[in-house]
Amino acid sequence: MARRHATDGTSGSSLEGLFPDGLPSAVPAPRRDPAARRLTRLLPLALWSALAGIVVAGNLHLERPGRILLASVAVSGAAMLVVAVAPVLVVTMAALAVMGLMVGFVNIVAVSWLQARIAQDMLGRVMSLAMLVGFGITPLSLGVAGALLDVNATLLFAGSGLLVIGVAVAAALSRYPSKFDAPSPILGTARPEPVTA
User: Fold this and answer.
1) DSSP string spanning the chain?
2) What is the pLDDT of residues 118-172, one digit of tens each?
3) Closest CA to 180 of 8, 44, 64
4) Do residues 71 and 52 touch, judged by C-beta distance below 8 A?
5) 3-state per-residue secondary structure call for 131-155
6) Where are the domains of the chain?
7) CB 3.0-4.6 Å disulfide test: which of 66, 79, 113, 177 passes with 95?
8) Separation CA 94–CA 131 (nearest Å)
9) What pTM was computed for the model?
């Protein structure tokens, strides 16, 4: 079966150990392909971790989530760097678990923040536009990532991690947390009353 080479052989990261012959060009049967077996271990781990992050975000009531949100973004970037240079599979799995947890948490907190600042009569329109932009960019990013994987997978993860960390640092320098924690112009400082039976 033809394969796409994920690394150029210059890195000692676990990406080479996971896929010494390159990533599969298609998704083969896991029983027949060692690389596919490794993928079936890594992908569910990241997805379940993201689900855990969603659950955590949905059950936490933070007074000022701006700093925590920014720290979560930075941690996810650091986890990408670890994936790029991790020497063994266990470290890669742990980094992916942390990254998934942070991404799930950030998504819920950010979307909740956005919805709290949209007038009710415009909520559906704004969120549909936001979802359209997200789903529209995803195929493009996957295409770019796939092309870069053909060049060097380690460099792809390292560069992505540094980019995410850089965005977090730039946001911190622009006082993003205080802006994020500012009261909603729609909800103000009032809190919804708890629902009682």
Assistant:
1) --EE----S---SHHHHH-TT-EESS---TTT-HHHHHHHHHHHHHHHHHHHHHHHHHH---S--HHHHHHHHHHHHHHHHHHHH-SSHHHHHHHHHHHHHHHHHHHHHHHHHHHTTS-GGGHHHHHHHHHHHHHHHHHHHHHHHHHHHHH-HHHHHHHHHHHHHHHHHHHHHTTHHHHHTSPBTTTBT--PPPP--
2) 888 888 888 888 888 888 888 888 888 888 888 888 888 899 999 999 999 999 8
3) 64
4) no
5) HHHHHHHHHHHHHHHHHHHHHCHHH
6) 14-21+46-180
7) 79
8) 29
9) 0.70
In 3D space, the residue among 72, 35, 30 whose CA is nearest the CA of residue 50 turns out to be: 72
Residues contacting 185, CB < 8 A, separation 6+: 117
User: How many other C-beta atoms lie within 10 A of the C-beta of residue 39?
Assistant: 18
Q: How large is the angle between the packed helices 89-115 and 123-151, nearest 10 degrees? A: 160
